[in-house]
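sanity check this:
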Amino acid sequence: MELILDRVTKQYKNKIAVDRLSTTLKEGVYGLLGANGAGKTTLMRMICGIAEISSGEIRLGGEEIGAMEGRYRDLLGYLPQDFGYYPNFTAMEFMLYIASLKGLNRSYAKQQSDLLLQKVGLANEMRHKIKTFSGGMRQRLGIAQALLNDPKILVLDEPTAGLDPKERVRFRNMIAELGKERIVILSTHIVSDVEEIADWIFLMKQGQFIAQGTLEDLKTHYLEVSGDEEPEKFNLEKLYLFYFSEEEI
């Protein structure tokens, strides 16, 4: 399976939010790293078919995703930065509600919800109302609902924002496991999230990919552009700080 971005552009009046991006994604974890305002969320919304593309195409298996309509949505799981939930729903009620929106059979939905809530560590909380959950628990519920239809493309926008270090590590491990059999796109401004688990990393600024590759590729790139004479001390944070000011971060 290949998800192809071909000169994808998004323009709002006089502002270009995403500028002619092209790449090919296969199974694995892709880290989309950049400061707030870099265009990450806009790009992910276009990949999910939520935001209209100004020019260019996104294709799956050679077919433009807009033409696929429901067939594409059936393959997609999405966790936006601020996913909507009903505070008075229990975790199980919320899962079954999302499953109904996705058109899933109720028997399958109940079985899948049980399995996923257990997977994200909420098995003992499934009868509790979401308004009693911590931020980390809500994020885990968010990833569970995104997985209800067993998606082949999983899009996660700032999924670890606001989580404590222990929750963040747990979440990263879960994402790494999911990336073994699907395309996972992880957008964040937290460098350690992508440094630990991403098979391929995109560094995004002003709507463009200013650097991309494996962690080793980016190390080579950083040493070339920075002239750093201590390559053994390289980490992704150094490359990030090289391109972004502290104000942007």
